[in-house]
Design goal:
three-stranded antiparallel β-sheet
């Protein structure tokens, strides 16, 4: 494909804007793209926003045996149910899993994807743990979970609300 001269930034920016509009007409399974509204006032802002399926895991119970059993630091270890990962793979292949961890002395919010979880499993960094007390469970509890260090996941940085001054 040919285009304007390599040094013609204005022309390339126009082409980029046209391509963004064209991209936004496409449809994808399990996620939706929209133009970043900030682009109206800041042409250098990132181009798009994406919304996609997301599942929140609120984790408040530390897996104390993670280090001795699997070499995963108990301070930051989390468990993710194997059956959830299988269900997500079937129903929501583009899902983001958000882990909101609060152990009192350790608090972190991070996220992972099915792709990253598969990779960690293949690398031996996510360890399958079978719950001995759930082998014959009939109440729907997970019988197996992957134990993984949450420090391997991308942190979701929380913005602090500015203090509002009363008038």
């Amino acid at each position: 494909m040919t285009g304007p001269h390599n040094e013609d930034k204005v022309a390339w920016c126009r082409i980029g804007e046209d391509r963004e509009r064209g991209f936004l007409t496409r449809r994808f399974r399990g996620c939706e793209f929209t133009l970043n509204p900030e682009k109206v006032v800041n042409k250098y802002a990132h181009d798009l926003l994406v919304s996609q399926p997301c599942d929140l895991k609120s984790i408040t119970t530390r897996f104390r045996m993670a280090e001795s059993l699997y070499g995963v630091p108990s301070r930051s270890a989390v468990t993710i149910n194997r059956k959830d990962l299988r269900r997500y793979a079937d129903l929501y292949p583009n899902i983001v899993i958000v882990l909101d961890i609060d152990y009192g002395d350790f608090r972190r919010t991070c996220m992972t994807t099915l792709f990253q979880m598969r990779s960690l499993i293949e690398q031996g960094k996510a360890h399958l743990h079978q719950y001995k007390d759930r082998i014959d469970d009939t109440h729907g509890n997970a019988k197996e979970s992957y134990v993984v260090d949450s420090m391997l996941f991308q942190e979701v940085v929380e913005e602090k609300n500015p203090k509002h001054e009363e008038n």
